[in-house]
Specification:
The protein is an alpha/beta fold. Helices cover 32% and strands 22% of the residues. The strands form 4 sheets. Strands 1-7-6-4-5 form a 5-stranded mixed β-sheet, sandwiched between helices. Strands 8-13-12-11 form a 4-stranded mixed β-sheet, with helices on both faces. Strand 12 (330-337) and strand 13 (341-348) form a beta hairpin. Helix 3 (53-68) crosses helix 4 (92-99). The structure holds oxa(dethia)-CoA (UT7).
Amino acid sequence: MQRTKIAGIGKFLPEKVVTNNDLTKVMETSDEWIQERTGIKERRYAKRFEDTTTTMGAEAAKIAMERAGVGPADIDFIIFATLSPDYYFPGCGVLLQRLLGMNEIGALDIRNQCSGFIYGMSVADQFIKTGMYKNILLVGSETHSYALDFSTRGRNVSVIFGDGAGAVVLQPSAREGQGILSTHLHSNGQEAELLSMPNPGFHAGRFWPEKKPAQPDGEFGGMFITEEIIRTDDLYPNMDGPAVFKKAVIKFPEVVMEALEKNNLSTSDINMLIPHQANLRIAQFVQQKLRLRDDQVHNNIQQYGNTTAASVPIALCEAWELGKIKDDDLVCLAAFGSGFTWGSALLRW
Ligand code: UT7
C-alpha cells in the first residue's frame, strides 16, 4: 500500500523570549526551581494583539509548503491541532484556509492537546493511503501565553508552557520504503480532570462535582460562563503535575515499544526519537528506559517550553534543520498529555 511521507516541514517561533527570571517578576518562582524540575530556561510568547494560533500556524505552513514545492492551491485537506484556538468556534482550520487563500477544501480541527499532532498525522495517513488526498497540510499551533494564570497560584502550570507552531505537508511517497510505517493512538478518560480546563464548558459540573458552579436563575441558559466562574477566576488550566508525570513515564516508552514491535524493529534501530516536549525530566526518563543514546533523541524544551500540539512538529523540524535526520532514517514521534491521550508514529524519512 502507498505510504505517506513528510514532503515539507516548517516551524514558527515568535520573537519574544521570556526567561525564567522574567517570570519571577510576576510570581513566586525561581530560575533554579524551573530548570531543576522541568529543564526549561526560556520560552517564546506570541506578539500580543498580533500573533494568533492561526497566524503562527500559517507562517509554519508557508515554510512547509515551500519546502514541499507546493502552494496553497495544491493543498487538498487541512488538519489543525490546537488547544488554544482563536475562536471557541469555528476552529482554526477554516481561519487558516481563509488566511492562506486556499480552495474550498475540507478543514478538520483536532482537540487532543499534547498528542494532537500525532492524532492528526494518523488521520492524514489514512486519507493518503486510501488515495483520497494527495497534499494534506497538518498544523500544530498554540498561544498559551494569552490564557495562563500568571499569579503564584498558577505557577505550576504557567512556567511550563510556551507559544509556537509547526507544520508538515504530507504526500504519497514514491520512494520504496519511505514514509509512515504505522501510527498508534490511545486514550483513557478515567482521570480526565487531572490535566484539564473545564471552563468555559457547557456543563463542567456534571463530571466534576467540586467544580459545579452555582445554579443559575431562570429556566434557560446561563450555564456556560457563570458569574461564579469569573468570581473564582476558574478559567485556567488545572494540572496535578506529579500524577501526570507518573503516567507519562509509563505510557511514553509503552507506545514507542508498541510501534517498534508492530514493525519488527528494536530501539537500536531508532535514528531519532522526538518526544513531545512536556518536561525534560520525562524525556530523559524515557530515553533511559529505552536505552537510547543522546544522539537518538532530540529535545528543545530548554528553549521553547512545552508548546503542546506544536511541540512535536517544532522539535522534528529543528532536528531536521540541524541535519540530525537524513534520508532513510527511522524516526519515532511520541506524545502523551491531557485526556489522557497518547500515541506514536514511526516513519522512514
Ligand atoms: O504536556 C502536558 C503534560 N504535562 C506534563 O507532562 C507535566 C508533568 N508534570 C511535571 O512536569 C511536574 O510535575 C511539574 C513540573 C509540573 C511540577 O514539578 P514537581 O517536581 O512534580 O513539583 P510539585 O508539583 O510536586 O511541587 C513541589 C513544590 C510545591 O511546593 P510544596 O508544596 O512542596 O511547598 C509547589 O507548590 O514546588 C512548588 N511549585 C513551585 N515552586 C516554584 C510548583 N510550581 C512552582 C514554581 N516555582 N513554578
